[in-house]
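ok so i was messing around last nite and threw this chain in just to see what happens. nothing serious, just curious
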Amino acid sequence: MANVTRKELATRLARAKALPLSEAESLIEAMFAEIVGALNAGDSVELRGFGGFHVKDCPPRTAFNPRKRETVNVPARRAVRFRVSGKITQEIGRAHV
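result:
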């Protein structure tokens, strides 16, 4: 099983929609930039039938490093979460039956 890279995705899009490869790459880059921009602004991004992205604020916490047997302070951070749509879940489930 191979990974589909950004370049491969652009190639497939260009082939499917009869676009020049450079235009397909630009469309993908623009889409990613818009998603990141919306998430940075605090918005969620919902792609119906695919899934949704949102930002979760993770508070600071204390963790334990078992190798050194000491506690470590983990700072607060923002993490991107993705929730897949039910439609995709069903499609993937049917593909492997």
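not much to say yet. The longest helix spans residues 21-40.
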